[in-house]
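A quick aside before the break. I want you to see a complete sequence-to-structure record at least once, exactly as it would be stored in a machine-readable document. Don't worry about memorizing anything.
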Amino acid sequence: MALQQLNYVITRLRWMEEREIWPNGLRYLWTDAFGLVLYVSLYRATGDAIWLSRSQTLVDAVYRVLGRKRGLRIGEEPDRDGQYFHYLSKWIYALMLYGEYAPGYRDEAIRLAKQIHPQFVVPSRGVIWKMREDLSAPYPGFGYGALDAFDGYVVYRLLDEDGLAREIAEMEALILESYRWLYIDQDLGLGMMLWLCHFFPDEPWATRLNQTCTQSLETLWTDKPGYFCRQQGWHDRKFAFTNYGVSLGLQAQDLWPERVTQLNGFFEDYRSGDEYDSNAITHVMACASHFPGLFLRNGGNPTTARPAPIPARQ
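That is the input. The structure line, written in tokens, reads:
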């Protein structure tokens, strides 16, 4: 059963805003995508239109700061140039959800998918991990991403199976070539793959990767005090935000709820002593761990009625 700790999330959001961590801090596309899903999930759960208003403010800020002629930049800081496909796919997913309530944003998600796909995808080869900021060429020193084709396949299918049929077919061909031998060795990648698998659990790639990722995560678990280390051999190296990503995957699979509770408790008081203590990614993903909401197929609560869409903006 997915966590539904709304009071925790609302309190943490207020705390972040007071300290200008998020959403009034520096833009970062991964964090903003998670945050937009969180806002829409809060609207779905509460019916309070303030969360849609905050969603619109966030979307406007992301496009104003990170938007480019094609795609969106990774982040606002100087060292966050270029574009990542797996960040863009998370933003597309978030726009898709927001588009259920705000007219035009589902179409914007489809437009963005069609815009970036041919720049990142090399048919029969892979999805380029990182592109230059104008999408003119691969970013120097980067190859193909191991999980990116799975990201695209799942998000495209959820978004528009007919309109994105060609793009889906190209992603499917890539995952069918890779899923049998794919090995993921880091905590966040394992959590995100479990999340991806839960959308189409009966497909062969999802069945296999669900099993192998669960087995790999078992080797990363440190029972006392209760966290997943970064990767095998790094048992003392741990990150709060990556553990929260694992939590999201575990809740998507309804797996190890006691470990989800344990890691949430451990990282509530844990301080790494570096920039991640105050970085927005840590705190926004903590919210997702405590309230995964619409990151899950049924929104974490299949009996919750959906509020009505907001009227078109004048």
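Two observations worth writing down. Confidence is low (pLDDT under 50) at residues 302-314. The first helix runs from residue 6 to 18. We'll return to this after the break.
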